Give the backbone structure.
Amino acid sequence: MSVLIPSSRRRSSSELYDRIDLGHGDRSAKRSAYWTMLVLSGVIATAGVIADSTATVIGAMIVAPLSTPILAVGLGIVSGRLSLVGRSLLYVAASVAAVVAIGYLVALVLPNPTNVLANSQVTGRVSPTLTDLAAAVATGFAGAIAIARRDVGDVLPGVAIAISLVPPLGVVGVCLGSGEPGLALGALILFASNTVVLIIAAVVVLMAAGYARESAEPPAAAWRGRAYTALAVAFLAVGIPMTLNTLTSFWAGQVGSLAETWLGGTAQAEVGDVTWHGHGLVVEVRSPQGLPDLAELQDAVNGALPTDPPVTVVHTVGERITE
């Protein structure tokens, strides 16, 4: 770890507490700045989601201070300061409620929330996969190392963009306000996975960097063991649905390929979206002609997928009109 965090560049324990513990030092100023920036980032994120503006959402990621109490949870576990863990978790919970409420209230006044639910800022966050989890792991370690070193603070805005904490919460609020709790749950899983991974990364990095040895309150082994168990359970809780999302996405891609093969002899036929509806798959096909026997596609799907999902084809007659 001395290679990643050289002693000459390592923050002292007091510097680390001053940076990420909202109850350390000038508490009033820290809390005022935290809540001001959190609310503003929530408004910016929600506006970006509604407008389907990637640039606006990135702005919200940079402004958002939510990683501060999340990293403080990791520091509290390493140092054995149960009060810091509890206080920081309360900040996280209150922050989640605040940003979700902003998204919810905005969704209530939208004239047509259905259009918002179909944009890329929403669809890209309601079905997280293992790819998102892998990116969160790498980003979490980058953030934890950056917070422990004095000389790499410039990477923190990039970490904030990559790990994405506030935008998924804005999506949760918008989906709840639009009457789509299932979509809201998907976005909440994305936020939860990013949060859990960031805490785990902070614990690993700060422990390896020796901050536990400097703690004035060394934790009992049982307490630290319970904290590790809780993190492992939380990681599994978010990892399982993300694994399922990865599998269903992979299978949908397979069915799309099988549908293209099925349509091989049909001129001008195109496969559109392949989506899951319950336990079945819906394949959108555009073709000015009739389609082959659906039983052939169903047999191919049954042979490729382990669950034998029923396949429904939505046939749209697409005609090319030229002058």
